[in-house]
Design brief:
47% helix; six-stranded mixed beta sheet; D-Maltodextrin-Binding Protein, domain 2; globular; single chain; 306 residues; two-stranded antiparallel sheet; alpha/beta; 2 domains; 11 helices
């Protein structure tokens, strides 16, 4: 009887051990079939986070702006921060372009374009007019960023010459224009529109010449010169301007408006430039660009009349 009881107890013990072994084997098999149960969940979460980060990642567009001699078009404010009409309008554009963020680097006119060629910058902000050469070399948005009021300066005794037609009829000579400068195309377009009142265009390769032409006008070497209003205001009209001493010896008139554009490296692609152009139009249509113009120029370039 004792032997039977011991046998039953041993049998029960063996059955219990076998059951435990089967349970462990089952759990092992489940872990073998899903070896990354916990890790798989973590990987999925990491993938989702990576996709979310990728979705919110913004492409940086770097603008090189002229930080000397170009205020209030571009430059630095009293705190040393990038500002001016061009930059503030682009900030308004940037606010509407969710996939992009704009950065601004202050530099010289020449370095802005050298930097584009070297891949240091994506675009140049230099108050540039459209020219055939620039259109071949850079991507230019269809919508202009800004516009420059142009000033025709003459000697005081020639105050009746107020525009290119007056200059043509006077038979007097326009000072040379820097080769490749947008002023060349302003006069070229005028000549195309006025075949009976042509103005002779002379060019120079001296990049420092344009400001010096004021002195030559006063000296009588040339009868007239063309300047952008911001440059003329800062150089001649401002009391601390480099050529302010000649103000009483000349007469000047605002005579036309020329659109200005940022020049983009072709590496940024036409898709982005087209997006920027469309968004720039939205900013202008909203009246925001006019507000910024009033702030920096004291007048609205988009409602300027001659």
């Amino acid at each position: 009887m004792k032997k039977r009881i011991i046998a039953v107890i041993l049998g029960a013990a063996l059955f219990t051990l076998a059951a435990c072994g089967n349970t462990a084997n089952t759990e092992s098999a489940e872990n073998t079939e899903n070896p990354a149960n916990t890790e798989g969940t973590a990987d999925a979460e990491n993938t989702e986070e990576a996709e979310a980060a990728s979705a919110t990642e913004q492409k940086v567009i770097t603008f090189a702006y002229r930080n000397t001699g170009n205020w209030p078009v571009s430059g630095e404010d009293e705190s040393g921060n990038p500002s001016g009409y061009d930059i503030e309008v682009l900030r308004a554009v940037d606010d509407l372009l969710e996939d992009y963020t704009f950065e601004y680097v202050g530099t010289s006119y020449d370095d802005a374009y050298i930097g584009i060629e070297a891949g240091n910058y994506d675009a140049a902000l230099t108050n540039a007019f459209w020219t055939e050469e620039r259109a071949e070399k850079y991507l230019i948005p269809e919508e202009p960023l800004g516009a420059s009021v142009l000033v025709l300066a003459v000697r005081a005794e020639d105050a009746d010459i107020k525009n290119l037609t007056d200059l043509s009829k006077s038979g007097k000579e326009l000072a040379p224009i820097l080769a490749g400068n947008g002023m060349y195309y302003v006069v070229k377009q005028y000549n195309s529109d006025n075949p009976d009142n042509q103005v002779e265009i002379k060019v120079t390769d001296d990049s420092t010449y344009v400001a010096g032409s004021v002195e030559e006008i006063v000296a009588g070497k040339y009868a007239a010169g063309i300047f952008t209003k911001p440059s003329f205001d800062n150089t001649v009209i401002a009391e601390d301007g480099d050529l302010h001493q000649f103000l009483t010896e000349i007469s000047y008139s605002e005579f036309t408006l020329a659109n200005t554009y940022p020049m983009f490296s072709k590496n940024v692609g036409e898709d982005f430039v087209n997006k920027l152009s469309d968004t720039l139009k939205q900013v202008k249509d909203s009246g925001k660009a006019s507000e910024i113009s009033e702030q920096f120029f004291g007048y609205d370039i988009w409602n300027y009349e001659f």
